[in-house]
Write a structure and sequence with these properties.
By secondary structure, this protein is mainly alpha-helical. The chain folds into two domains: 32 residues, no CATH class; 61 residues, no CATH class. 65% of the residues lie in helices and 0% in strands. The protein contains three helices and no strands. The longest helix has 44 residues. It starts with a helix and ends with a helix.
């Protein structure tokens, strides 16, 4: 079935491209690219705004701004948790270094 469909498409393209010169003008109009669902047409729903214009209402933010703010928030959460749970290990090493320096000076 797929081979048959491909053959029909190829035959249609060859027939369309091998038409006369006057038909090439009509052909050019059929080859014009249409944007389809590329946006820029009818907007549905409320207009999207920058996140700094309405910071308390994420449903109105532009999609890319929502992604940036969300990823930044998650990054801060993970980094803060990492710093919180690893802070005791760094302090104990520093304390042991200060005790060893005091012992070296006394000897």
């Amino acid at each position: 079935m797929a081979a048959w469909t491909a053959a029909v498409r190829q035959a249609a393209n060859v027939a369309r491209l091998s038409s006369t010169k006057s038909a090439s003008i009509a052909q050019a109009t059929t080859l014009v690219h249409r944007r389809g669902l590329a946006g820029g047409g009818d907007h549905h729903g409320p207009p999207k705004v920058n996140f700094w214009q309405d910071p308390m209402n994420p449903s109105k933010w532009k999609e890319e701004h929502f992604v940036i703010v969300s990823l930044t928030g998650w990054g801060l959460l993970f980094f803060g948790g990492y710093k919180y749970f690893t802070r005791g290990k760094e302090d104990s090493k520093e304390e042991s270094d200060t005790f060893s320096q005091k012992d070296d000076g006394a000897a």
